[in-house]
Design goal:
disordered C terminus, 2 strands, cytoplasm, DNA polymerase, domain 1, hpI Integrase, Chain A, two-stranded antiparallel sheet
Amino acid sequence: MVSAHKSTTPVAKHIPDFIDYCEVEKGLSNNTQRNYEQYLKLFVLWLKETDNEKLLPHELVAGHIWDYRLYLARTYKTPHGSYLGKKSQNYYLIALRAFLNYLAERDIESLPSSKVKLAKQKNEETISFLEVDDFEKMLVIPDTATFSGARDRAIMELFFSSGMRISELTSLTTDQVSFLKDKNPRRTFELSIVGKGKHIRTIFISPRAAEWLRKYLASRRDVYKPLFINTRSGASEDEDRRLSVRAIQMMISRCARLAGLSKKVTPHTLRHSYATDLLAHGADLRSVQELLGHKNVATTQVYTHVTNKRLRDIHERFHGGNNSSNRTG
């Protein structure tokens, strides 16, 4: 058994190697790598602000972690000026845990990842979703006579039709939807995508979503590979023209606001709405799990707000005890 050694390299300078490790040895998706890098940037910033920039891995103690947790909960504000919720705080702490696990695997003496406790959340997660009528109000906001309007309508239609994650949608290319040349107005198309954890799954594009994708693609006069592109002038490389996650988040938030919706609406809200709609129309939880690309059905069970209502409706409709005429006196 190899004993751990004390590194003379400060904690912060180990992070780039950790990100490389995530890609090469762990095989994590590009999106997960970016998230870890982004979350750990805040940890590095905190080290600088607290004069711990030169802190070595073996010098990191539980007191530092506690102070960092207080910083996440009480001091740090997002670019929008809001404090982090418990769920968001945990994303930063999970990234730190993963980094400490990496140090342990490299036999670098440091604080065990088990010392990083996560913020407690409510047992039942509240799912934010839209009723179909509210979603329809959002759909008519973009001016589809313009390039960006046709694009934004196609994006929202695709989200609701497929339940895709935003990272999956932004990574699509025009080659992947070449089948849309088939203009059958009643056909639902299938598309294989690489989702979270590099798992391949099939998503479905409804006839209406397919039609809006065709309209958007017909408005393009370029040969860029990304399916959804920005209107930035002067960009010549494919990746420079790929529409960013942030741009889509802002677009959806804007459409919701202009549609008069009071709740916060994000791309993930549309994914939740997709799952909720399927369950409300009779889909079983296992099928929805597969359509969403959830590895474990427990993840899908957050949609109990729908399944519980369906069970109650079924009980009220079919259980003899609910019908007074079936009771014997």
